[in-house]
Write a sequence for this structure.
């Protein structure tokens, strides 16, 4: 081995050691990243499952409320029977529908409800848009009619309404 070949061999050995260190570090980093992704995925899956279970429970609670409302409407229909049988029949029909909705709601998961709402929105976009506008209108009216805390009554408003102006 000549002096020149020995120098070349000596130079390549540290570079090979560096590439081994880099590949070892790279493998370790990849392994740590894969492990973190797996743990993150498992955590997200667990949280998603818990949230869905909680929402399904709340759907069941909502179905119970609708069921109680249906029972109350049935009682109202019975009270109306003596005075107004036609109105009692109409109220009984509403109670039956509410009872049916309660039963249907109890048998569905949150995913099924979201899917049904999405399908209805695709079939009837005008109805959904109209309901959204109506809800927005009522929300705006409610917000506007709520008095501001700490505000004093406006005397000019009382005067315009024909109220007593103090003179």
């Amino acid at each position: 081995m000549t002096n020149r070949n020995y120098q070349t061999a000596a130079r390549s050995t540290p570079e090979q050691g560096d590439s081994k260190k880099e590949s070892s570090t790279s493998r370790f980093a990849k392994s740590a990243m894969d492990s973190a992704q797996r743990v993150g995925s498992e955590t997200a899956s667990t949280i998603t499952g818990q949230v869905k279970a909680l929402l399904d429970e709340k759907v069941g609670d909502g179905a119970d409320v609708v069921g109680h409302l249906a029972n109350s409407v049935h009682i109202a229909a019975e009270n109306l029977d003596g005075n107004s049988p036609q109105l009692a029949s109409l109220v009984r029909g509403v109670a039956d529908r509410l009872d049916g909705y309660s039963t249907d709601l109890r048998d569905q998961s949150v995913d099924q409800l979201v899917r049904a709402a999405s399908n209805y929105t695709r079939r009837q976009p005008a109805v959904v848009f109209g309901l959204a506008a109506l809800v927005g209108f009522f929300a705006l009216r409610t917000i506007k009619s709520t008095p501001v805390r700490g505000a004093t009554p406006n005397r000019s408003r009382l005067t315009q309404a024909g109220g007593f102006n103090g003179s």
Q: What stands out?
A: The radius of gyration is 35 Å. The chain is about 85% helix and 0% strand.
